[in-house]
Amino acid sequence: MTIAALDVPRDVEDASAEELLRWAHDQFRGRICLTCSWQRQSSVLVHLLGELGLGVPVVELDTQLFFKETYETRDRLVERYGLRLERPHVISVAEQALREGPNLWERDPDRCCAIRKVEPLERALAPYDAWITGIRREQSPTRANAAKVEWSERYGVWKIQPLADWDAKRVQAYIAVNEIPYNPLHDAGFPSIGCIPCTRPVREGEEERAGRWAGSDKLECGIHGNTRLVKESSD
User: Fold this and answer.
1) pLDDT for 120-176, tens place per residue?
2) How far apart are CA 148 and CA 166, in angstroms?
3) Is residue 112 among the annotated active site residues?
4) Statement: residue 22 has pLDDT above 90
5) Helical H runs in the chain?
6) Which one from 112, 195, 198, 221 is the annotated catalytic residue?
7) Residue 126: inside a domain, yes or no?
8) What domain count does the chain have?
9) Cα 173-8-32 angle, rounded to 5 deg
10) Is 197 strand, coil or helix?
């Protein structure tokens, strides 16, 4: 799919998270979704959409390898906000082992992420024109230039990133003030939380995502690649 026409406001980078979510909801009414990994940013976005009264479906990419605390956080958010989850099919870990060999995440983490995250997301985003994500520029060097509105070449959708300019302190403060359920692993040295085999606590002074795929040069699971910045409207 080629890039679609969109009138991006000139001041979009100055928009608050609430303003951006309202704008995106109006632009893509019925054709926009939110993906959740049940980390702090997921909690914030779920709460923001609920407070704004914007009924946006939530896509959960359940790799079947999440921490117990992650699933418990999901259940608390679903109950509190009445979320409607969409779960693209992911093959079982046992089936993956038969096809690819055991512990693929150790031998070829990119292949494992492709099977358990990227390919399911491609199917999940097919009905949509826009996708709300929790990417923040502070998280890692690979995300430092993330824009609040980007075009995803990989999925053929617009990426809406309302928290791009938020830092971790602001995220945690928002959660505390609004008493939002969040993943307790964040309080146990896990600023970024993924699958059990590929996530460890970070050490003092390390970047937020240093605990992901530690010991390798891998920084991303692959679902956020191939985006293009777009020119804003002059209106």
Assistant:
1) 999 999 999 999 999 999 887 877 889 999 999 889 999 999 999 999 999 999 999
2) 11
3) no
4) yes
5) 17-27, 40-52, 68-81, 93-100, 104-107, 109-113, 119-125, 168-178
6) 221
7) yes
8) 1
9) 65
10) helix
